Amino acid sequence: MRGIRLFERNRSRDLRAYQTQAEEKLWRRLRGRQLAGWKFVRQHPIGPYFGDFVCRERKLIVEVDGATHSSDEEIAYDARRTTFLEEAGYRVLRINNIDVSQSLESVCDTILAALERD
């Protein structure tokens, strides 16, 4: 069990170290409870997957997707991943890199609406 936790911690660190520009930009708005007091963590392990940004209190995962999520194979993988996460009790909100880059405030409004939804 200790080896699994060490792997998860190392993988989380790697994912945080190599985040996209959009992920970095969104994290600057989510970190430190800046979004209406909600706490988010980055690259949080959930089963075999890692959520980009996770509000554990509301069980909301915000995924920031770019061009690497457009092939049939990647779409199928994302669908399997989303199914697993939803079966684990999470809601998955997918945000496009371009939306983060061009309309960060609208993205934050969308996330806030999802957090406040039952």
From TrEMBL:
Family annotation (CDD domains): Endonuclease_DUF559
One Pfam entry name: DUF559
Taxonomic lineage: Bacteria, Pseudomonadati, Pseudomonadota, Alphaproteobacteria, Hyphomicrobiales
UniProt cross-references to SUPFAM superfamilies, sorted A to Z: Restriction endonuclease-like (SSF52980)
Listed PANTHER family: BLL0828 PROTEIN
Classification via InterPro entries: DUF559 (IPR007569), Endonuclease_DUF559_bact (IPR047216), Restrct_endonuc-II-like (IPR011335)
Official protein name in the record: DUF559 domain-containing protein
Domain DUF559: 9-116
